[in-house]
């Protein structure tokens, strides 16, 4: 009846002009059986509501109505409700030329197909989108229950038990996924012509239930990492969603546990497997409770009550309680994808994510869509909370290390192996003889005398050389002797002047 469309990122076909019809059901069990409540909400791309309806559904004479923990409806209410045939016509009319969306679409589609088959109605395949699977592709969360995804996406309110609240929430998730998170269609959706179907019957809507104050257990469930059970992902998510929903009121009774066991058995889940799931669930609850280092007396009491009801009291027997300190509690304001991703980051880090500003909030994170004059910013500062932009929040909250700017001129990189071994000193050159002492610098006056003396000695040598040449040329002996005496005198005088000073 509903076929899931392949989705893509920014490079695909945008959802401009496409309406979404969100469908939510409540059923008699976990396997395709009977629908006991149906709700549908059609929204336009601008977020306006084009139409909606909701009704309780009588599963038929002799058909068990199922456990109240699965749908919260009494048998008396179902006795006065119309059959599914009265709701199929309005559903097909609302879905005409739109994309059907549902959280855990395979689970919803299986029940709707089973109901249509009982009526003998052939419905062409409707294009559909699973908001659970789509959310997994764009954001990281501990779990993908409808309430958890809605909280991360900043969708106001809490999906309560009536199907109408779940349908409205799924519609808002679809708009966010194809809007600010940029999902597109991998192929153009085809819209078949749907048959007209109608039987006499007045719809019987269930009154909306205003969600009360959220318990600590309901808040912890959002941070617990849970995934599908067994090989059937649709069944697994449905059971864990049911388990978490029952646990979240912190008043789990033995009757509710027995009802859960009956639903699991009816769906074909082995008892040993269900117990293992419960053990993992309680252990995860404890891990999240202790993650912030603060377990109050009331928190310990709620956790022990749930564990005891599930027959797993030993898993929390040594749970400390009454520890001091104030746990980190973060409120994120903003409507951008960055704000959504940081809400998911807070839950994934095991930190409490607040829905509104109270005295327990320790950090208020804002994105660019929050005006500077937003009153909650001032009020948060008055309450002592740290106000920070979404870009700096991961570092402020300790999710990431501080990013330091690199130096303008990076130091040379020395390989560790080279740096660890000292460089040997160059070998000394061995000399053959003694090393002469370095020259002693001479005073300026002494240097002048040495130069003058050497010049005079040069003149003396030149005169003596000239005498020798003259004698061979026939110069008189007396003249030769006279010049030779002058040469010897100049030589001796120059030597005396240039003689080194005594030391």
Topology:
Elements: E1 2-4, E2 7-8, E3 20-27, E4 35-43, E5 49-56, H1 68-71, H2 75-79, H3 84-95, E6 99-102, H4 105-119, E7 126-130, H5 131-138, H6 146-152, H7 163-178, E8 184-185, H8 216-221, H9 233-247, H10 254-266, H11 271-291, H12 297-309, E9 329-333, H13 337-348, E10 352-353, E11 363-366, H14 375-382, E12 386-389, H15 393-396, H16 416-420, H17 444-472, H18 477-498
Parallel strand pairs: 1-7, 3-6, 6-7, 9-10, 9-11, 11-12
Antiparallel strand pairs: 2-8, 3-4, 4-5
Summarize the structure.
Helix content is 43%, strand content 11%.
- H/E series, N to C? EEEEEHHHEHEHHHEHHHHHEHEEHEHHHH
Radius of gyration: 46 Å
Helix percentage: 40-55%
CATH architecture term of the largest domain? 2-Layer Sandwich
Number of domains: 4
Strand runs, count:
12
Shape: elongated
Strand order of the largest sheet: 1-7-6-3-4-5
CATH class of the largest domain: Alpha Beta
Q: Give the CATH H-level superfamily of the largest domain.
A: Ribonuclease H-like superfamily/Ribonuclease H
**Ends distance:** 120 Å
In CATH, the topology of the largest domain is named Nucleotidyltransferase, domain 5
Structural class given helices, strands, pairing? alpha/beta
Biggest β-sheet: count, sense, barrel?
A: 6 strands, mixed
Q: Report low-confidence residues grouped into runs of 5 or more.
A: 407-444
Instruction: Please state roughly what percent of the residues sit in beta strands, choosing from under 5%, 5-15%, 15-25%, 25-35%, 35-45% or over 45%.
Output: 5-15%
């Amino acid at each position: 009846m509903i076929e899931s469309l392949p989705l893509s990122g920014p490079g695909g076909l945008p959802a401009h002009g496409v309406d979404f019809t969100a469908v939510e059901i409540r059923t008699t069990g976990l396997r395709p059986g009977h629908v006991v409540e149906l709700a549908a909400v059609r929204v336009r791309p601008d977020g306006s509501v084009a139409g909606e309806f909701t009704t309780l559904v009588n599963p038929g004479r002799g058909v068990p109505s199922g456990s109240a923990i699965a749908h919260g409806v009494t048998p008396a209410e179902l006795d006065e409700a119309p059959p599914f045939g009265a709701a199929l016509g309005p559903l097909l009319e609302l879905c005409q030329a739109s994309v059907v969306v549902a959280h855990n679409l395979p689970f919803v589609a299986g029940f709707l197909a089973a109901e249509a088959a009982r009526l003998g109605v052939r419905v062409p395949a409707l294009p559909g989108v699973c908001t659970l699977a789509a959310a997994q592709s764009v954001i990281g969360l501990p779990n993908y229950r409808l309430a958890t995804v809605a909280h991360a996406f900043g969708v106001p309110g809490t999906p309560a038990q009536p199907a109408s609240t779940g349908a409205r929430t799924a519609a808002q998730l679809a708009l966010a996924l194809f809007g600010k998170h940029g999902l597109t269609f991998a192929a153009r959706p085809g819209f078949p012509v749907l048959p007209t179907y109608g039987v006499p019957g007045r719809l019987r809507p269930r009154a909306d239930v205003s969600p009360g104050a959220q318990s600590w257990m309901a808040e912890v469930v959002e941070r617990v990492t849970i995934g599908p059970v067994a090989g059937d992902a649709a069944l697994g998510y449905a059971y864990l969603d049911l388990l978490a929903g029952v646990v979240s009121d912190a008043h789990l009774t033995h009757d509710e546990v027995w009802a859960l066991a009956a639903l699991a058995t009816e769906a074909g889940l082995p008892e040993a497997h269900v117990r293992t799931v419960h053990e993992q669930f309680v252990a995860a609850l404890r891990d999240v409770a202790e993650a912030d280092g603060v377990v109050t007396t009331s928190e310990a009491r709620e956790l022990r009550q749930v564990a005891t009801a599930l027959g797993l009291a030993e898993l929390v027997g040594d749970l400390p309680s009454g520890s001091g300190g104030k746990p980190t509690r973060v409120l994120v304001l903003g409507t951008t994808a960055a704000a959504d991703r940081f809400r998911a980051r807070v839950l994934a880090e095991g930190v409490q994510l607040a829905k509104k500003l109270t005295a327990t909030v320790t950090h208020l994170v804002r994105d660019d869509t929050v005006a500077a004059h937003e009153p909650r910013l001032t009020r948060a500062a008055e309450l002592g909370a740290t106000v920070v932009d979404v870009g700096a929040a991961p570092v402020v909250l300790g999710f990431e290390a501080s990013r330091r700017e690199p130096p303008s001129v990076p130091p040379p990189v020395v390989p560790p192996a080279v740096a660890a071994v000292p460089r040997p000193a160059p070998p000394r050159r061995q000399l053959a003889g003694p090393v002469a002492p370095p020259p002693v610098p001479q005073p300026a006056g002494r240097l002048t005398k040495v130069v003058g003396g050497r010049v005079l000695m040069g003149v003396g040598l030149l005169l003596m050389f000239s005498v020798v040449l003259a004698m061979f040329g026939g110069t008189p002996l007396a003249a030769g002797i006279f010049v030779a005496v002058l040469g010897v005198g100049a030589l001796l005088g120059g030597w005396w002047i240039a003689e080194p000073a005594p030391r």
